[in-house]
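Q: For a teaching session next week I want to show students how multiple molecules come together into a single three-dimensional assembly. I've collected the sequence lines for a complex. Could you give me the predicted structure tokens for the whole thing so I can convert them for display?
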Amino acid sequence: MDSQCVSILPRVCGVLLVSGSSLPDDTSLEKLLDWFTTVAQTGPSLLEACPCLVDFVSKVAFNYASGSSILSFTLKLTGLIGASEDGFKVLKECSVLKLVFNPQHWQEAGLWEDPCLRIGWIQGLKMILQHSEALSFFAQADLIEPLLQLQTDPSLFVASAANQTLAQVLLLCQSLSSVGHNGSKNRDLEHNSEISQLPGSQQILRLLAMLLVRVGPPLRDTLLLAVMNSLEELVTTSCSQLTVPLLDVILAANSGLRDDCVPKQRLIRLLWAMLNMKKPDDVMQAAAAVLRSHQSDPALSAHSARVLLLPLDIVTGVSLLDENSTEGELRILITEQLKRKSCISMICVCLSNIPQITLMASDRLPCPQRLIVTAVLLLLRLCCVDSSSSSPGCVEVVRFITGNSKVQKCALEALLVLSKSPGVKMVLVEVFKVLTEYLNSPSSDPSVLQKSYQVVIKWVGVCPDLSCITDQLREGFIQAVRKRACDTRWEARDSTVEFLGHLVEVPSCWTFTEQETEPLDVLLGGRRFTVPLLKEALQDPESYVRASSISALAQTLAPSWQDGTALTQEQEDIVAQLQEVLFQDSEGFARRAAVKYFTAWFSACSSPSSCWLLMQSMPTVLSQGVADLDWEVKLHTLELAELLLDRAFPDPSPSHSYAVMSDQDHRLPIAGQQSDLLSSLKNLVDWGVVSALLCGVVDCDRPVALKACQLLLKLRGIVCPVMDNAADTRVFCQLAGASVLQQVRKIQEIGKDTHVVSEACSEADEEGICASVDPECVGVCEVLRLLDLDEKLSILTQSSDHIYNSPLSLLQDILTAAAASSPPGQDSRQELVMDCY
Amino acid sequence: MKLYCLSGHPTLPCNVLKFKSTTVMLDCGLDTTSVLNFLPLPLVHSPRLSKLPGWVSKDGSLNLEKELKECAGRVFVDSQPEFCLPERELLDLSTIDVILISNYHCMMALPYITEHTGFTGTVYATEPTLQIGRLLMEELVNFMERVPKAQSATCWKNKEIQRMLPGPLKDAVDVWTWKRCYSMQEVNSALSKVQLVGYSQKVELFGAVQVSPLSSGYSLGSSNWIIQSHHEKVSYVSGSSLLTTHPQPMDQSSLKNSDVLILTGLTQMPTANPDGMLGEFCSNLAMTIRAGGNVLVPCYSSGVIYDLLECLYQFIESANLGTTPFYFISPVANSSLEFSQIFAEWLCHNKQTKVYLPEPPFPHAELIQTNKLKHYPSIHGDFSSEFRQPCVVFTGHPSLRFGDVVHFMELWGKSSLNTVIFTEPDFSYLDALAPYQPLAMKCVYCPIDTRLNFHQVSKLLKEVQPLHVVCPEQYTQPPLTQSHRSDLMLELQPPPMPYRRCSVLNLPFRRRYERVYILPELANSLVPSEVKPGVSVATVSAVLQSKDNKHTLQSVPKAPPVAPSKKRKRVMEEPPMTMAPKPLLSGAVPLEAFLATLQKHGITEVKVEETADGHILHLQAEDTLIQLEEDGTHIVCDNNEPLRATLRDLVLRFLQKL
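A: Of course. Below is the structure for the complete assembly, covering every listed component.
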């Protein structure tokens, strides 16, 4: 801990004691507490570090006049101090502990009413409950009773914190397994077993769920036995509001139990009871929860799946479930509900659980997955505004779901998952037709369009044979995509452009004639369709669309880059357009995408050096990118620079005889190595990498400067050791920004004065930097050595706000705020208060 | 109250309301879908159309080669197109007092009603309705007269022959009543009968009813009408819209408390959302232009086109269509574009405020200024020299049977690069395209109908709560093609009364009250007496005078003092003795109290019998009956006048006298 902090802490405590309300801002106390917590966690003990705290705590405890925030803070601080056994002893010795944690004390002072104080009390208590001493104190002081009362506190935060503290008590009991504390534990359990009224029971159920996840076997079994009857009672009274917390408890309990134990059987029975409740919504919720929790009971999960599929069965009329099953009554109830507006949420619950259903073993499924796909497809058709198809199922529901994008999205999501189902490839054509219908429909919401595209990608990706896509289907699909690329809503255009990019990345498939085909060719007729569309999108007024189209172009052209195919005129045009984007686009998104395009191109290209256009564009891209206003563009540019750097100096690997080692002492420079390095370095300079890095390292955006600094260090590590001893190795580079030049000059000045630069190289440096005719030219090696990159790196790695967030600054702030408000004080403060009101 | 339904078309209504001795025609829409049975009228000689084979029945027995031509399996009448008029036989059109027009689309049959029928009444319409309606009529006349057709086919209309024709000609109804287009002279004469009204202006009709137009939000100057007397209110809702397009928003609150609401002119495209369609329109347009094709938009010269142009104005820039020329070709194009800018008070609030700024309310002015939108009266003249492709052309008529659009269909139909985008919902696009088959051009159907949909109308009706709703029968069942969509119909309690062409409906409410005025001096002479707190009654003797549907109570004229006559008095000339009227009684006789009073007067033996209307008291000793009923009291007492008088007085004690 900082000695400066220690020295001013007593003054801060004094300030807090006197004028708690003159804090610089509301969060100061929280920050202070956070700092103490870190000190306590990292250092030996909080009291050792800050002995003045005990004094502070005891003074506050006897001083009712302190503000509630200070009191609350003190309670928490006491907890923090008492969390260690040493601290606990000290507190106990000065008899602060009993006073501070005695609710009676605060009630008498009339302060208990403040929820702020209560929460401080609870949290302090929770913090202190770390060791057996604390637990016996807790039991002796009889704090369980007030804590239990706080469970039903009007303040939600207090109630929830009380709950957590209770759980903490029980867990501590368990971990200590100390017999002496049975009293409190049992009382707690008794209380829990009296789950009675609604608001209370919700809290208790939450506590139970929390406990059951965390407690170990002996205590858990006791707990379960104690509450089982109440749970059963709650399930039979079936109150809708309790369904979810109840389910949480039952599932939490169930998850840890072995199949053969007694409580397990009772829990399963409870789950069955919940699946047979009267309200369809509750039943659906229960079924969904059962499926999600991956119950081991096969009958239970099978039944849940049936329940969840019921709405789909009823709406579409596709008989997913055999009629003569037990859920006849539920079917009637659900059918009734589907005639009301609330049917939407029910259908959505059904659809969003289809993924869980598909995960089940096929012998437990109520019907083949293929049938579920058929039903979902029919539902999608019913939801589509333009479709005229009707269902043999529930007719009344149509008016609610037609055009409802929520249902549409859920159904599409389900269809997405169902693509993995076995034996559904036959319906690809149907899926394709429905999706085309959605893409074509003028009333489709952009989010629905996006989902539809995702589903197309998914289905096309899993289907090995796309020969079923006829010319007519393809034509319809192409029309729809083309139209959406011209949509008035930018979201729709954006999704379309993204889709075009993603489609390229879907792996190739084999037709029945054993020919390899790309899905892009099958669906859209290949790149000659998509590239013009994407080029149009480069002109889009919406920057997101422009950015997406650039990314999609990169995806589309990647294969040809990998193959090293000769560039077409079209590609050259695109590069020109992208450079224009870099220069002129007003939005960062597009410029970021443009830089990434070149990064993608460079990394995909098998031999970049042979691709003249790529290498020719590099200086422009780098110089423009690193001078951008958007820090992400700059960062992406530096990433591109890194790629170039790596390409120029490949990582040392065993096969390379001239691998560069950082430690020069062990290797002697070889003339060949030097000349190789020299030419690589020259290349780097020619590509504009070095200027970009030098420009980046003085950037005002920290991540940019950091990245540039790291890269420069890397470059220095490679170049300097070898080049230092070289005779004529000066490589000059042009500096773009004025600021870096200034900085270099400044360093150079300082270097002269203080002789930081070693004798050996100073001459060369001087010459290196100054010798060139162009004043904006610098010698690379010299600059690398001159710039104190290591120091820069250490500054940059610290987060930019490290000074403002330091504990010292916090403490000083508190002192200054108090000083500002006290001496001429009272008046001005009152004035301030007056002003506020 | 009766409603005569002269048109079966739900959005082109023509109904006649007889209400309190007035005969009011509500709209006179012209059903132009009949023109789809005719061959298009090309502006320039079309070799394709002129070479179409004539139609001969399969067995050769029927030869109408001259009148009917066959194209792509369908038969068309080769003659000047004809319209299906509103029914003219159902009632005598000369008896119509007034015609209320709700919007310019619903007045196209006006000359057929007001001319040559003996009509002598007045037509009421708002100014934009009249002006734009005139433009549409002028355009129609111009389209027809520009391409005169000597031949007029009539043989096919013969019932026996029509029966043998292939569909849809075979199924066309009332073909004998179909008429050719009117002349400009008839238009002028018909429109001279129009009296202009403003929103919420009250127009008194013969003192019997008041009519008043309300903004309906559908088009410039479009209105719904309130027809009301003092005690009855009929609302006529026709072509209304809740969307915020260019017209003034719909006035809904004034429709409240109607006895009858006549509902017509709902959207013809209940499943097509206008916003979605507008987006669809734009994307198809952009798609075609980018591919180097031309876009043809068959449309009316006013209405949705303003919204289309406004939408395109925003879209052009974003879709990089800045250099593509837009042409608007119509004989009235110029007037239509200019009129729209000057009807400030009829525009939506947003546009109204622009009128006071230097910028015009509609952005199409800017499109014209920047030369992006050019308008021409026809394809002849300037247009042909300035025409540049690819381009977008807006032109009429949406039926594709006449107007400049015919030329463009012939010109562009052969290339699959071009697209025709239908935006008007009045015609089936497949039928419209039938005489152009085979067609390579792409066809897109984006009907934009901003009128109320079923969802909106049921919300509206819930809010305005009319007692009865009358609507075309089409609205009472789901559309034929989507029979499962129960949401695409009106479901009301009580169910709406459906009508169809030629229906005569007795509207289900009785007139129960009539307002009567009382002259001040007569009112002065009244002596009110309070029968219960807040309610006073008085008797009045007066003469009721009814004139111009106004009823007034006047004092009874005093008999003129008889001039002293020298003649001998004759009994007959004696003025009738005016007897003071007996006081009127009110109230009820309370049984218990009455019995007590009887007892006081020594009548003790009373047997009370309960009847359906009251009680019968049998005074056994006196052998007398007293019947106490709700609306009368009878004392049956034989030959005992003193007793009767006593009893009468006892009864009277309990009643109030006026």
